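Can anyone check this?
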Amino acid sequence: MIQITQSGKEIAGASQVILFSAEDVNKNFSTNEFTNSDLKLIQEGKEKMDFVKKGSVFTFAIFSEQSDEALRVIGSTIQLQIAKTVSTLQLLGVESAVLPLAEGVILSNYQFLKYCSDRNEQVFKLSTLQFPQEVASKTISELENSCKVVYWSRDMVNEPVSYLTAEKLSEEIVEAGINAGFSVNVLEKSQIEALKMGGLLGVNRGSMDPPTFTIATYCHPEAVNEKPIVLVGKGVVYDTGGLSLKPTPGSMDCMKSDMAGAAAVAGAIYLAALQQLKINLVVLIPATDNRPGMDAYTPGDILTMHNGSTVEVLNTDAEGRLILADALAYSAKYDPEIVIDAATLTGAAVRAIGTHASVIMGNAADSYFNELEKAGNAVHERVVRFPFWDEYLTEMKSPIADLKNIGSGNAGMITAGKFLEHFVKAPYIHMDVAGPTWLDAKDSYRSKGGTGAGVRLLYQFLKNKSN
């Protein structure tokens, strides 16, 4: 990741971003590079960014009174312009605009080159970002930690299953816990069997690799919530669809991303611990791959879940809800204030609202939804609330078991949520993050492949709760 420094001194040979406020322009502020008329064009919105280039050095002028998201996008544009030629970027000017712009630069500078033999040639030259002294060190540290964890989450999603098995995902979370100071307990297959987690064990039957159930806990001594917030993440490290096999083009080829919900909730506790939020937090991650080999579970099977409920399997590609159901039932152990899950659960969510937001629904009080929406708007990881009427559960009733794992096909993102609600005793919010957590093409500072979506949203939600 980009190294962050802080100084009031200019760096010889560094490119610069100068953030001008309206007041600067009104004072006839000018530089050697930009005239007053240039700056007035920026102020009037005719240009959101302008730059001059002398040799290999760029100087960017930006009108600072723009939204945080506009500044993040501008930061991404700047990174694209200079990443391969400039090693150091110096930020100068208005404090309130520096942080979001820097966030756009840093998140755009992410690369996943681990498996590229020519990675030394591909790697971006941009390696240092210098903040002005006026910006509080505490806020710079928070931004640095946030981007570090988003990078980590992206790496987890981008790793192939040849590396990131369920066991390896758990090991990565253990290492994150050591780094940040939160506790991690990984339950192995025999322990999962003792807990009678029939959903997780059923999905895992077709795999050569064992499942894991990862329990991460963080509780600040001055936590504002006595009852914990429980986050649950879907950890399907690869999804073939099982015996209900997916077609490869445009479907199975990106299914290493089916654990993006797990990466989001693990990232949230990672960042909360790094920032020492005054919060009581538990994260639960059931993990396995879903394959058609070995003794694979079949359509028609009936599974008995951790809470004793029975589920008729009609489609083995609706596996995420089966492993989540066990984890959601297990959450009752903590008597939580609220349970929130994050899962790449349905294509229906993507078809409904695309990749620009996550679908949310549940039975929690409106205040929790409002807080989640507020957090999403602040970091531009937006959420859209869907209805959660009991009529949607009717489709999930089975004539030979308590539930079945698919509905009629209509409103599939909601029927899946109602299925999951059956296993939760606490107030509950379901987040279907299938859209924003994986992109087929780069979108500004949101990388191609794993985007790390969900980390900043959940962290902001937790941060607001802890204040």
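Reply from J.R.: I decoded it. The mean pLDDT is 94.
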